[in-house]
Amino acid sequence: MPVTFKDFLIVQSESGHSVPDAKRLEKLSDKEFREIYVNEMKQFVRYHGHNPICTKCSVVIDNPESLVRYFGGNYHNSCFQEEYKNERSKLREYEVRYLDLVAKMAGNK
Q1: Contacts of 92 (CB under 8 A, 6+ apart)
Q2: Which positions ≥6 away from 65 have C-beta within 8 Å?
Q3: Which stretches of the chain score pLDDT less than 50?
Q4: What is the per-residue pLDDT across 39-62, written as a single tens digit (0 to 9) for each?
């Protein structure tokens, strides 16, 4: 059975929500992380049955490889990079660890 993004989720005790386990994800190669992340975005698009619209620029994201999910919003890679750069200092350490991986992947499409 192939490894999926869900294999890297942990439950946070204080909220009960699942969050990515950045420590485990950091151990993956860039290629492995990208493959797992893009597959998750493909599943997201299939589940919703249409291509999402970017939260920042309001343009359709026509390729799951260009989609980044960020705090419930849908972003193009470049729109995410800009948004994350502005908000990074306000985030928790585990969020930064995970989102740094996403930013690196999104910047190397």
Answers
A1: none
A2: 38, 41, 109
A3: none
A4: 999 999 999 999 999 999 999 999
Structural domain harbouring 58: 5-107
pLDDT for position 50: 93
Candidates 64, 57, 46; CA nearest to 81 is 57
HEC profile of 36-104: HHHHHHHHHHHHHCCCCECCCCCCECCCHHHEEEECCEEEEHHHHHHHHHHHHHHCCHHHHHHHHHHHH
Phi, psi dihedral angles at 93 (to 5 degrees): -60, -45
What is residue 1's predicted lDDT score, i.e. its pLDDT?
56
Structural domains of the chain, count: 1
Q: Which amino acid is at 43?
A: Q
71: left (phi over 0), alpha (psi -120 to 50) or beta: left
